Amino acid sequence: MKAAISSLTTTTSKNLNLHYSSATLSRSALLNPKPLSRSPSFLPPIPTKIHHTRIDFSGKSHFHTNNFSPVMASSYKPEQARAPPALPLPAPPVTKAIYFYVYILFEIGLCQLSVTPDKERNIAHARKAIEEAAQRGAQLVLLPEIWNSPYSNDSFPIYAEDIDAGGDASPSTAMLSEAARLLKITIVGGSIPERSGDKLYNTCCVFGADGKLKAKHRKIHLFDIDIPGKITFIESKTLTAGQSPTIVDTDVGRIGIGICYDLRFQELAMIYAARGAHLLCYPGAFNMTTGPLHWELLQRARAADNQLYVATCSPARDTESGYVAWGHSTLVGPFGEVLATTEHEETIIIAEIDYSLVELRRTNLPLQKQRRGDLYQLVDVQRLNSE
Amino acid sequence: MKAAISSLTTTTSKNLNLHYSSATLSRSALLNPKPLSRSPSFLPPIPTKIHHTRIDFSGKSHFHTNNFSPVMASSYKPEQARAPPALPLPAPPVTKAIYFYVYILFEIGLCQLSVTPDKERNIAHARKAIEEAAQRGAQLVLLPEIWNSPYSNDSFPIYAEDIDAGGDASPSTAMLSEAARLLKITIVGGSIPERSGDKLYNTCCVFGADGKLKAKHRKIHLFDIDIPGKITFIESKTLTAGQSPTIVDTDVGRIGIGICYDLRFQELAMIYAARGAHLLCYPGAFNMTTGPLHWELLQRARAADNQLYVATCSPARDTESGYVAWGHSTLVGPFGEVLATTEHEETIIIAEIDYSLVELRRTNLPLQKQRRGDLYQLVDVQRLNSE
């Protein structure tokens, strides 16, 4: 199964260098013992002191009652609700020791950047933000959609870079690679316009703590919408859609990638969950119409329905630009709860992710075991074909 | 295709009498010309005066730009994102003439009822609420989950009725049938405990304006959850799960039915949307833990993701009862916007549904044409097998 995922991800880039760190104590384990994150008051209390005993990443959660009937559930074929069957959640490689306990947590940085028509400035500016996020403890940094260029069909061809050629042909990703290596962090590099042959893509690069490109996601669902008098944008006028979902094993867990409009397609998040994702990262630039309507709703829904973390990162709002972004970069927990968010100004959010909550919520609400594979089935076409 | 749906629905009850009203002027067309519903201010304006010209229920929405490339979209096989392929939205049989224009709208009544251990009182009380809702203009009335009985595993066997036997064996549904016939309205009758042979179900009956049982939905996903210290409930201790999704053509459109925990499974809503539903009705009794966490989130997500109306109806809150319901019955529009809601006290919500908005929102955001059938596919097992 793991081989299947790797082979899929590999198809997205020649430069992939997938590896999977085993669960060891992280470098900041004893340097940085912080209090556990607090959930909103209406959430059930998290039994923090027994995390290390109650978490089971074998994929076999234990239901804490004798009343539950596994016989009944199995007759509904929950394992068939996904084809191929859902993978068990992998053991996250991120751990932190606090006194006698080992926690599965780390900090994420969401850099809600201001973006200008000056590409050099955008790159230098993003670098500073990444450095600040790392300095404040982030082991994973997420950037916005199209952070090196104005968001417009006129700009995409001008600002596009040849990522596969690398070096001078792609100063934006060269910076990301160097920053990741020097800071020893994972970077989900938002997105930039990518030129590949005669085609343009909206592309997200993921760099590991060694500076190597681990995955490249080309936006699968292009942003072609028409709400008369409000927002009309036809991304397919200039861009080509990617051909593959992208999920990648990093030092901070298994991460599924989507870009902006990809968030609207619940099937993609469902596929990632079935491939064992701990976290979905969506760089995105919703606008002043779709932002208030759907931005928070969709990310909370993806998190709650799939019982995993969702992080989004938007550009800061610039009311003078042709496309005005909504902002509101957000981290959502596996119960669909907003853990950290902001308004529309430029800012860096640092927030804690605790993967033990993913397993806990799946024990609270064992949706995976309750699905009706006898009635519906979601097929992951590429994973199925690769088996 | 239509035959496939009918045959599926028919399997849920011997008493089904499916029919599909053609789009004619409704009886209240000229009697009751009300102003159109107003959307929240952040929503794009609805071009009300051209509804009659821009709505196309052939399933072929027109994209209002020359930039959109259907060739590109078709290479992604959006029609294969559902198996069998999604049905076109049927012409809703509900219309209302106002001056020279014909609108596709009607009023729904959500009866958030108080429920007591006195079954006779519950039935009489529900009847009064239905009558009041109809008097206030509702052509469709929705009741809460388990409205004739306390919500508890101890009560289900005691309050259960033999719906198929009817008459004295099921006083609750006999009342619903009579009320529907006398008031000439459609009733989605919340749910009651049903006894069938030696099994118990959590069952929703849909009655047409002629008083006939049109569909019977047995809760497909049983409520077995365990959030220690907050809420633990194992419905499967007494109940058996239903074996079929339920979608039904009524005088007020094509309606997909789910009961409470069914709302958590996005696949069911996706199946209903692909079968051409205008509206999903979920009688439900979320509790004081899951209510604030997920009740509104899930119904808004189902509506926005599937671009259709979602109506929910809860019992009123009784803090003295063993299971304390969240309340907050709600109507959500096809952009995921809350159109009408309430707190937890007993009340009747009357709100307007305008199906032309379903088509409008699908034109604004043509998700159906943008899905990646080359990457994922949701299979409706029963519909596929019936073809």
TrEMBL record, chains A, B:
- Name the PROSITE patterns for this protein: CN_HYDROLASE (PS50263)
InterPro entries cross-referenced by the UniProt entry? C-N_Hydrolase, C-N_Hydrolase_sf, Nit1/2_C-N_Hydrolase
Keyword Coiled coil in annotation: no
Keyword Hydrolase on this protein? yes
One short Pfam family name for this protein? CN_hydrolase
Q: Which GO terms describe its cellular component?
A: mitochondrion
UniProtKB keywords: Hydrolase
User: GO annotations under biological process?
Assistant: asparagine metabolic process; glutamine metabolic process; oxaloacetate metabolic process
Q: Which SUPFAM superfamilies match?
A: Carbon-nitrogen hydrolase
Q: Kindly give the Gene3D superfamilies that the UniProt entry links to this protein.
A: Carbon-nitrogen hydrolase (3.60.110.10)
Indicate the segments forming the CN hydrolase domain, all copies.
106-355
Q: Which domain of life is it from?
A: Eukaryota
Q: Which GO-annotated molecular functions does the record name?
A: omega-amidase activity
Its recorded name reads Carbon-nitrogen hydrolase
Q: Which organism is it from?
A: Trema orientale (Charcoal tree)
The organism's taxonomic lineage, starting at the top: Eukaryota, Viridiplantae, Streptophyta, Embryophyta, Tracheophyta
